[in-house]
Structure formats: structure tokens, C-alpha cells
Design brief:
13 helices, alpha+beta, 3 domains, GIY-YIG endonuclease
Length: 261
């Protein structure tokens, strides 16, 4: 694929915006892809978008400074943690980094859907732009243990109503975390995910938390788990948990206490 043609297409449609903005804005991205193909660029949408990002990373746009910078979204705190957890989950499901997820229309569609599940009403553009910004600020650094020890299944479930869905949880080993729209609350490991999560939600703390959510006194809470192969060793399981604690900085682990929810 000709980088010069992708660059020319970008310059034709950018309206002074950055490559990240053009990729995240549906209207500008459609115009960019159309211009790239008219100029002779080959490959699918994901290839062309990725080429544009790579041109920027390699300094190929240093002579084309951004003249219309995006204003910070004052509501970012409300959905940033949802963006982080969405990106992390899809990185494992697609075996791609966040740049490739946002560049790929199919992966991007799942990203948009998950954001709406975790934080309804979040503007799709703002969420995608936030994901790329987190990566640029090194807040989405690789989690190497999770890349080496591949999950055999990953899913996020809402805490309210979780009791009725316990049967869907795996009986095998894995790691899990509880989070809301603003923070990761707790991360743990388990030899039996179903039993461990059932222990969490059998407590008074859990029931009080559900009441607060139902009464709209606090944000919704989710549990996200990664089911791991039964061949995983205790040492590997602990390493995975330690990595998640380092990467996500959950507030209850940081405080050195088990929230039982």
C-alpha cells in the first residue's frame, strides 16, 4: 500500500485534524477511506487506517501539524474506566492492540457496543478517541503475562442480576476483577471461578452494594473474568493476578483488604 497515497488522502479530508481524530470521526473517516481508494490505495479499511497511524508514528506527518486540536471532554472521567476495560477485553478477544482495534471496523463495532453496555450514552467518537489517547499516554501498556497465558474465555457481567447467571460461569481456574465506570475495585484469582465469585456475592457487602446501585446511589458495577487453561500452575495464576493488580491499580487491593464484593 502506498504510504504517499494514504498521506495525500488524509491531507485532502483532515480539516486540520489529527490522524486519530480522522480515524475516530465516522464522517471524516468515510471521506478519508474514499479518497485513499480514489488515489489508488489497496487493502481493506483496517489496513488503510493502520497505515495512516503508522505514518504518524514514524514521523511522516511532521510537516503537517495539527491546526484544529480537539478540546478535552469534561465528561471523560465518567467513562474512562469503561474505555480502559473495553480496550483490555477486546485486546484479548481479538489478539490485537488498541490501535488495531480502533482501526478495524469490525472490532470497532464491538468496542462501541461494549462501551454502551458499560456506560450507556457515552459518545462513540469520544470513547474511541479516549482509547487512542490512553495508549499514547502509556496508560494501556502491554500486560505480558496475559499475552503469554492465553485466556480460553472472557466475559463481563453486570453485578445486579449476577446471582441468576452464576451457572454461566466457568468451573475452572481464572482471574477476575470488579469495576465501575470510574475505577477498578478489586482483582483476584481463583482455582474455580464460579465458586469464588459466588463466595463474593453471598456476602452482606454485596447485597448492600446492589441496593445502592438499584437506588441510583452509586454507578453500576461489573465483574470481568478470564477463564484460563486447567493446566495453569499456581505460580502462573499468581503472576497473572499480580500483573492485573499492577496494571489496573484496584482500590481495595491497594488498601490491602478484600471487599467481599
Amino acid at each position: 500500500m502506498g504510504d504517499s497515497r494514504v498521506k495525500q488522502a488524509f491531507l485532502e479530508v483532515r480539516e486540520g485534524r489529527s490522524p486519530e481524530y480522522v480515524i475516530c470521526d465516522s464522517g471524516l473517516n468515510e471521506a478519508f477511506l474514499e479518497a485513499a481508494r480514489r488515489l489508488g490505495s489497496q487493502g481493506n479499511d483496517a489496513d488503510i487506517n493502520s497505515t495512516l497511524l503508522n505514518i504518524r508514528k514514524q514521523g511522516g506527518l511532521s510537516d503537517c501539524p495539527t491546526t484544529r486540536r480537539k478540546k478535552p471532554d469534561p465528561n471523560l472521567k465518567h467513562y474512562q474506566n469503561a474505555v480502559l476495560n473495553t480496550a483490555r477485553l477486546l485486546e484479548k478477544q481479538f489478539d490485537k492492540n488498541v490501535d488495531d482495534i480502533i482501526c478495524d471496523p469490525d472490532a470497532q463495532a464491538q468496542f462501541d457496543a461494549l462501551i454502551q453496555f458499560f456506560c450507556p450514552g457515552t459518545p462513540a467518537f469520544e470513547a474511541k478517541y479516549a482509547a487512542l489517547s490512553l495508549r499514547k499516554r502509556n496508560q494501556l501498556k502491554p500486560e505480558p503475562v496475559g499475552q503469554i497465558i492465553r485466556a480460553i474465555g472472557s466475559e463481563a457481567l453486570e453485578l445486579v442480576g449476577l446471582e441468576g447467571r452464576l451457572g454461566e460461569l466457568p468451573d475452572g481456574p481464572g482471574v477476575y476483577l470488579f469495576f465501575d465506570e470510574e475505577t477498578t475495585l478489586y482483582t483476584g484469582k481463583a482455582d474455580n471461578l464460579k465458586k469464588r465469585i459466588k463466595d463474593h456475592i453471598s456476602t452482606w457487602t454485596y447485597r448492600d452494594l446492589v441496593r445502592q446501585i438499584t437506588d441510583n446511589r452509586r454507578p453500576r458495577v461489573f465483574v470481568l473474568y478470564h477463564a484460563l487453561p486447567v493446566t495453569i500452575t499456581a505460580r502462573e495464576l499468581s503472576a497473572y493476578e499480580t500483573e492485573l493488580i499492577r496494571s489496573r491499580d484496584p482500590e481495595h487491593n491497594r488498601a490491602g483488604k478484600n471487599p467481599e464484593a
